[in-house]
Amino acid sequence: MYTYKNLQDHAYDYLLEAILTEKLLPGQTYSVTLIAEQIGMSRTPVRDALQRLSQEKYVDILPSKGFLVHRISEQDIKEIFELRCAIEGYSCFSLASQITTAQGIEALGKLENCLARQREIAYDFANADIYLEYDRQFHNIITSFSGNSSFINIIDTNNSRITRFARRSLQQQKFLLKTFEEHNHIYQAISSGDAEASFQAMLDHLKTPMAENLRSLGS
What we know:
Elements: H1 4-20, H2 32-39, H3 43-55, E1 59-62, E2 66-69, H4 74-96, H5 102-121, H6 128-145, H7 149-161, H8 163-170, H9 173-191, H10 195-217
Antiparallel strand pairs: 1-2
C-alpha cells in the first residue's frame, strides 16, 4: 500500500520528468485536477509536490487556477551560475589542496577516467546527450569530494533546471570541444596541486555555459 509520502514523491517525480522532457511547457496553465487524474491519485499529494517544485523554481503556482512551468529568466541563469561558481570553485580548491590523500587520489582517478570517455566522443556532436552525462559526472566528482550533501543537492537541482540549454549548446561541436578542453585544463590545475589556479580554472570554465545559456534564452 502506498503511504502519503510515496504518493507525494511519485507525483513529484512524474511532474519533474514531464518538465525536464518538455511534456509540460512554459506559457500554458495546467490543472492540478487533471494532473492528479492522469497520475491516478487525489489532488492533495499533487499540490504538495507542486509546492516543492515551486520552491525549486520549476513551477509557478497560480492560486485557484493551477500552475505554470517556470520560464527561466536571465536573472535565474545568472543566479544558477553564481551558485555553481561558489560551490564548484571551492570544491576544486579543496580537491587540489588534498591530492595526496587517499580520497584525493581516488577523485583524480575518477576525473581522469571521465576525461578519457569525453575525449572519445568530443569530436562527434551527435553524441551530445552522452557527452552531457559525462559533463555532469565530471562536475559531480569534484563537488562530491567536498562531502557536503547540501552542495551536491544544490548543484543537481540547478543543473536539471538548465538541461535543455546545456543540450542545445553541446549539439554545436565548437562548444562540445571547448567544454572538453576546459575540463582538461581544470584537471591539469587540480592534479598539479595548485588550489588557486584550480579555483580560477573552474570559474573561467563556467563562463562558457553561462554565456551560451543566456544567448539561447533569446533564441
